[in-house]
Amino acid sequence: MTGNGPLLLLFLLILLPGSHPMKIRQIYVKAGEVVTLHCPHSHKETKPTWTCYTPQETDLSNLSSAEQNQMGFLIHERSLVILSATVKDQGNYSCSLWNTTVQSWFRLIVYTTLSSDLERKTQYPITCYSQEACTLTCPDRNIPDKNILNITTTGIVWKKGSDVTTDSLVGESVSKEVYYFSSVDEEDYGVYTCTRSYVYQGQTYNKTFTVILNVKPGEKWKQPEILSPKEKDVFYVDLGSTLMINCTAVLSSEFDEVLWLSENSFVDRNLSSSVFYTWTQDINDEETKMTASLIFKNVSEKDLSKHYTCKLISVSEPPSFVTITLAQKDHTSTFIVALSIVAMILVVALMALLYVKWKTDIAIFLRNTLGCYSSISDGKSYDAYLMCYKSDSDGALNEDDRKWLENILEEFGYTLCFHDRDVLPEEPVEEAVSECIDQSRTVVLIPTTSDPGPGSGLLTDYGALVEQHSHVVFIRTETNGPKRSQSLKGLDKTGRCVTWKGMSSRLSSSSFCKELRYYLPPPQHKNKETTVRMIRP
Ligand SMILES: *[C@@H]1O[C@H](CO)[C@@H](O)[C@H](O)[C@H]1NC(C)=O
Ligand SMILES: *[C@@H]1O[C@H](CO)[C@@H](O)[C@H](O)[C@H]1NC(C)=O
Ligand SMILES: *[C@@H]1O[C@H](CO)[C@@H](O)[C@H](O)[C@H]1NC(C)=O
Ligand SMILES: *[C@@H]1O[C@H](CO)[C@@H](O)[C@H](O)[C@H]1NC(C)=O
Ligand SMILES: *[C@@H]1O[C@H](CO)[C@@H](O)[C@H](O)[C@H]1NC(C)=O
Ligand SMILES: *[C@@H]1O[C@H](CO)[C@@H](O)[C@H](O)[C@H]1NC(C)=O
Ligand SMILES: *[C@@H]1O[C@H](CO)[C@@H](O)[C@H](O)[C@H]1NC(C)=O
Ligand SMILES: *[C@@H]1O[C@H](CO)[C@@H](O)[C@H](O)[C@H]1NC(C)=O
């Protein structure tokens, strides 16, 4: 146990307030006034020992009470009371327990006149706002305990002005801890003194404090106003749900209040009610706001039929009101909105689908009705040249099909180039074919069973054909299988492929015809006569 002694000592030194040897409390007292030093330590069995160094060391606790009285102080419990301080009392004081194991230090400074530095240390500033209530409280630092033996307090005297002896009493608030202004004015600015008086053995001892009242223009309080909700607001709720409605107001004084009325009666503030309100206050430098939160624990049908009024009661203005109602959330309207969105998406999807399915018909229809003929002359004389290629499949076009195709295209208004008809007979066939390809806007490649005829030599290189002739429409058979030659494959990729489905395609309304017309540029009627003549002299 004994080994713990130094540790305990260290522990006490660190933990006990004021026990640090370097810390000295500065205490100021005006000469002739009462001052009390309160020892922060006490113990059931041991009273603190007071020692003063003024500058000679005196053990004050060892003196008898008669000696203490003679020296003008008294010790009671933890306090050392100096009844009428003199310059001789100025110095260091210590109170200690157990032979200075725990010790606190004080420095008593006794002054007769106030320097500006001392003023700062001994005066108590208070700030109030004009046209507002203001309370001056008499400080209670270093005053004797109320229950100190044989010291009786006689009261507090408030005076205005710095000179206690000449200045007059203020108001009727004498002998109170506080001095109260119901509404403070700029004129009230200034120095106030409060003097606490004590009687001890027939002698009156005083302690005077100086309070400086600063009056600032009223800013903390504003024009009272309910900020939210707004008049006639409707709150949409679900039956059976919990609802909180906040009524927030700016206050004009601390006596203003915000509360809730249901119809014409006050809403309960009892938290166990089904409808009640609570409030919170938010004070900052600029304004004071109060929020009264109206709470419905379980919104019922009955609640929906009532009017709720938030009332702001202010001391500076007549009361103001905001009335709101509740309404059931309308789920049908949101349902209708959702439904119409779905419907719109469906319509768009349907239109996209229809377009994909009928795009050829639509394009042809537009072409026919709006007369979308290209009017720009590109120097070509024919709309199309039908060119055969050899196909092994059964579904290829025969001579008859080809004749039909030529006729139907001419019926649709296309001018076709025939190398054997439109090109001079004396020209070699190969060159005639080349001429037709050059003079046509589109080359239509047709699969045939029979001999594809002249020009098929050109087809050994389809890629080159496509390159030269950007517009090639490729007709394929349904059974165009793996046997198809390598060079034909590239043509599928141009996308302009029309499938020949045998006899079923031999109708002007067939999908084959529609697709073919879709891929062919619109026929150009205008140049027909002139261009034919150009080549056929
Ligand atoms: C009081 O203590 C301070 C430092 O702790 C010392 O400077 C000063 O001289 C002391 N005053 C008296 C009167 O002992
Ligand atoms: C207290 O005073 C008595 C007599 O007055 C003296 O004998 C004693 O030594 C003093 N004690 C201390 C700690 O000064
Ligand atoms: C306090 O000091 C005195 C003499 O200086 C000594 O007789 C006494 O035992 C000490 N008490 C404690 C609790 O240390
Ligand atoms: C307190 O005052 C009364 C009379 O005023 C006196 O009889 C008594 O001894 C005093 N007590 C002390 C501790 O001074
Ligand atoms: C204390 O104040 C009262 C009245 O203000 C005065 O009569 C008395 O003499 C003062 N006492 C001291 C010690 O200054
Ligand atoms: C709200 O009240 C209704 C009817 O009074 C009741 O059926 C329902 O359980 C209550 N809901 C809650 C969450 O208390
Ligand atoms: C209402 O005010 C309180 C307190 O200011 C806050 O905690 C709560 O979130 C507010 N509720 C709503 C719905 O604004
Ligand atoms: C709140 O209401 C409950 C039940 O209605 C009641 O027992 C309680 O006393 C009320 N509390 C207050 C503070 O009125």
Tell me what the structure shows.
The structure is a single chain. The protein is α/β, with parallel strands linked by helices and 537 residues long. It has five domains: 107 residues, Immunoglobulin-like, CATH 2.60.40.10; 101 residues, Immunoglobulins (Immunoglobulin-like); 104 residues, Immunoglobulin-like, CATH 2.60.40.10; 36 residues; 149 residues, Toll/interleukin-1 receptor homology (TIR) domain (Rossmann fold). It has twelve helices and 28 strands. The strands form seven sheets. The chain has a five-stranded mixed beta sheet. Strands 16-23-22-18-19 form a five-stranded mixed beta sheet, with no helix packed on it. Helix 9 links the parallel strand 26 and strand 27. Helix 5 crosses helix 11. The C terminus is likely disordered. Bound molecules: 2-acetamido-2-deoxy-beta-D-glucopyranose (NAG) (8 copies). The site of one 2-acetamido-2-deoxy-beta-D-glucopyranose has 2 residues, from loops.
Q: In terms of topology, how is this protein built?
A:
Layout: H1 5-15, E1 24-30, E2 35-38, E3 49-53, E4 57-59, H2 65-71, E5 73-76, E6 79-82, E7 91-97, E8 102-111, H3 116-122, E9 123-129, E10 134-137, E11 151-160, E12 178-181, E13 190-200, E14 203-216, E15 225-228, E16 234-237, E17 243-250, E18 257-262, E19 265-266, E20 275-283, E21 288-296, H4 301-304, E22 307-313, E23 320-328, H5 331-370, E24 382-390, H6 399-411, E25 416-417, H7 419-422, H8 429-439, E26 440-448, H9 462-468, E27 472-477, H10 486-492, E28 497-500, H11 511-519, H12 528-535
Parallel strand pairs: 1-8, 9-14, 16-23, 24-25, 24-26, 26-27, 27-28
Antiparallel strand pairs: 2-6, 3-4, 3-7, 5-6, 7-8, 10-12, 11-13, 13-14, 15-17, 17-21, 18-19, 18-22, 20-21, 22-23
Helix pairs in contact: 5-11
